[in-house]
Amino acid sequence: MSASERCWFQCVRGCPGRYSVFDVIYRCPKCGDLLEVRHDTDSLAQRSPDEWKTLFDTRTHSNDWPYGSGVWGKKEWVCPAVDDENIVSMYEGHTNLFWAQRFGMELGLDDLWVKLCGNSHTGSFKDLGMTVLVSVVKQMIADGAPVRAIACASTGDTSASLAAYCAAAGIPSIVFLPRNKVSAAQLIQPIANGAMVLSLDTDFDGCMAIVKEITQDKTVYLANSMNSLRIEGQKTVGIEIAQQFDWEPPDWIVIPVGNLGNISALGKGLLLMKELGLVDRLPRLVAAQAERANPFYLSYLTGFSELVPVKARKTAASAIQIGNPVSYEKAVKVLREFDGIVVQATESELAEAAARADRTGMYACPHTGVALAALIKLVEEGLIKRRDRAVVISTAHGLKFTQFKVDYHQGTLADAECLRRNPPIELPADVGAVKTAIAERLGAS
After folding, report:
1. CA-wise closest residue to 289 among 344, 347, 369
2. In a domain, 9, yes or no
3. pLDDT digits over 223-260, tens only?
């Protein structure tokens, strides 16, 4: 069996028909639902679980191209059809699993960890999926496909990742951003990497509607998470977490969600591990949404009877300010497989959760704040117990959201109480005044 036959696109609902991962296709031509990448698990099962573990562990942080990447070190499980010379990688993955000991102690948890996916080339977990998608497109172009550019709608992180990987590959990129709804750090990233940046007077859902129209032209390839190639890279997060715990999955994983591709990917990787025998149980998954962009939470309350899109309102968690998530069906399937929970967080809850985490050594982005707030609620409700091993996935680096931090500590963050604000103390250049201020602070602590 050739490498190209070991993975393919297939309808997520199970419609008959297989499609090459090198075809320009995003939805099932029979029912219109999303596609997913399927793998020949019979072929993968020819290696034993222990052989897979040894292979993956041996490749970790190696300089053997491209296997030192946290994604491409699992190439056989991700996209074996891409030739090594067409892989576009910045050695993404292998991000720190941070033992949040002090924060856990505050919450009454002995075993709390934060997966710092923002410690990546462009500062977010999006790099994990983008390396796969851009590599496939580079292979397509090498094989003669008339692709002229790759395009995406974004709330900031996807556009940064697409622009960087396209710049490395020498492929033009086009990004659609909602005007004045992404941070300055997120906006400058695709600009610096040479992308064509279109700042539109709409929200993410409006940008998404336009990019779907533009990419009907098959020479402009769609890079949003409705393209299942992104999911293949992102699914390595769950695999990597288990690997970092010596192939023992945690009890809980909490992840912030917007367009729902990330939780779909997380579940996909964990299920593949279980199917191939690397783990014998699955964690429970928690999808965390901002209250102002909560269609998945509202659907959860009805037993996922249907998705009712909402008009997403402005939230500090701008990357998940999405009212009509494209990966809804995939995410519902995953939540049901994992006995999953959906929790929402208010603006004040997410801000205070991020600030509490920061006081224990983290530097949490607002989206991680949403996940941390969900964690706090589940601990308070008694669902997550003291001895449970819980992992919160931090999706982006806090430095991409400096204004969020500044506004909080100035006490001007909208709809947040800012209970832990820590502004600088302005004093004259006088030793006595400085000693007094220090004494007051240390005495107060």
Report:
1. 344
2. no
3. 988 899 999 999 999 999 999 999 999 999 999 999 99
Q: How many domains does the chain have?
A: 1
- Cα–Cα dist 395/155, whole Å: 13
- Asked if residue 391 belongs to a domain, the reply is yes
Instruction: Report helix angle 402-410 to 184-192, nearest 10.
Output: 160
How far apart CA 193 and CA 195 sit, in angstroms, is: 6
Task: Give the tens place of pLDDT for each residue, 405-418.
Answer: 999 999 999 999 99
Q: Full-prediction pTM beyond 0.85?
A: yes
Asked if residue 254 is part of any domain, the answer here is yes
Residues β-bridged to residue 220: 149
Buried b / exposed e across 29-50, counting CB within 10 Å, b at 16+? eeeeebbbbbbeeeebeeeeee
| pLDDT, position 444 | 58
HEC assignment per residue over the chain: CCHHHCEEEEECCCCCCCECCCCCCCECCCCCCEEEEEECHHHHCCCCHHHHHHHHHHHCCCCCCCCCCCCHHHHHHHCCCCCHHHCCCCCCCCCCEEECHHHHHHHCCCEEEEEECCCCCCCECHHHHHHHHHHHHHHHHHCCCCCCEEEEECCCHHHHHHHHHHHHHCCCEEEEEECCCCCHHHHHHHHHCCCEEEEECCCHHHHHHHHHHHCCCCCEEECCCCCHHHHHHHCHHHHHHHHHCCCCCCCEEEEECCCCHHHHHHHHHHHHHHHCCCCCCCCEEEEEEECCCCHHHHHHHCCCCCCCCCCCCCCCCHHHCCCCCCCHHHHHHHHHHCCCEEEEECHHHHHHHHHHHHCCCCCECHHHHHHHHHHHHHHHCCCCCCCCEEEEEECEEHHHHHHHHHHHHHCCCCCCCCCCCCCCCCCCCCHHHHHHHHHHHHHHC
CA atoms within 13 A on the CB side of 439: 6
Residue 19 belongs to some domain of the structure: no
Question: Chain-centre distance of CA 436, in angstroms?
Answer: 46
Domain that includes residue 291, residue range: 97-123+231-410
CATH number, domain of 297, equals 3.40.50.1100
